[in-house]
């Protein structure tokens, strides 16, 4: 587990969503790698991966990490090209993906699904409906996406049709997955991560079934040799996503079955229901936390407010 991500996790468990912003990001370095075609990835010590389309028309970035890292992200982009940032797309509202919004929106408009703007604007609860819970502050006006869409939007730059497509109720209720068809790359946002069991923001309108649907559809639509940028973690393949999807489905099914048998959450924890998948056990999302997440998602126990959308 990388440092900043650990901080994020610690903050989550401490119930303080703002603490990460007070932490020392001075030692974090932004690592730039080419993914394929004209798409790059910028990684910053566990923060959300930034995807970047870079070409003659300028830069389109997907997500913008924590606020204190914005200048480093800018410097890393300058190391690739002198062209301007033209658009920023947010995959979802979490602050490790949108923290740089206010900084970057001075340069170019931010695009996101309607619910991303709503949640950033209102602030509110995020969590798994159980032991992971935190309160997000309302974001300042400068950080709110200027352009929003309901279902999908395409940015035609750099010889690419960069498409943001909405997948409802997966990691949150405002997730977009971003396709770069010419370069044969996809940025999954946090519907796909490689740090182990995923965090599903049940209180932010996420659900296990929505996450399974999103990953299933993407695998179905994309060519076998597509390069996958996860929300967190290293560049992956479609086979990596298949293994992840198999885990999501199998763990969902085993909890669904236990619910049918009338088992309580405590009973499921006691028999270590997710033990066969223990290699996914992480510092952030442990097997017990993921079990709670599945239980709350499948039984509709969420303490957060659902945002109404079309
Ligand atoms: Zn997230």
Question: How would you sum up this structure, described in words?
Answer:
α7 (208-221) packs antiparallel against α8 (238-260). The relative contact order is 0.14. Helix content is 32%, strand content 22%. It has 310 residues and is of the alpha/beta class. A seven-stranded mixed sheet has the order 1-2-3-4-5-6-9. The chain has a five-stranded mixed sheet with strand order 10-11-12-13-14. It has helices spanning 3-14, 19-22, 70-78, 95-98, 101-104, 114-122, 208-221, 238-260, 265-270, 287-299; strands at residues 31-36, 39-43, 50-55, 58-62, 85-89, 110-113, 124-127, 133-136, 147-149, 152-157, 160-167, 175-180, 185-187, 227-229. A hairpin with a 4-residue loop joins β12 (175-180) and β13. The protein is globular and about 60 Å long. The structure holds zinc ion.
pLDDT < 50 stretches = 1-7, 9-19, 304-310
Q: Report the strand count.
A: 14
Fraction of residues in H or I helices = 25-40%
Shape: globular
Major sheet: arrangement of strands: 1-2-3-4-5-6-9
| Alpha-beta classification | alpha/beta
List the helices and strands and how they pair.
Layout lengths: L2 H12 L4 H4 L8 E6 L2 E5 L6 E6 L2 E5 L7 H9 L6 E5 L5 H4 L2 H4 L5 E4 H9 L1 E4 L5 E4 L10 E3 L2 E6 L2 E8 L7 E6 L4 E3 L20 H14 L5 E3 L8 H23 L4 H6 L16 H13 L11
Parallel strand pairs: 4-5, 5-6, 6-9, 13-14
Antiparallel strand pairs: 1-2, 2-3, 3-4, 7-8, 10-11, 11-12, 12-13
Helix pairs in contact: 7-8, 8-10
The chain binds zinc ion (ZN).
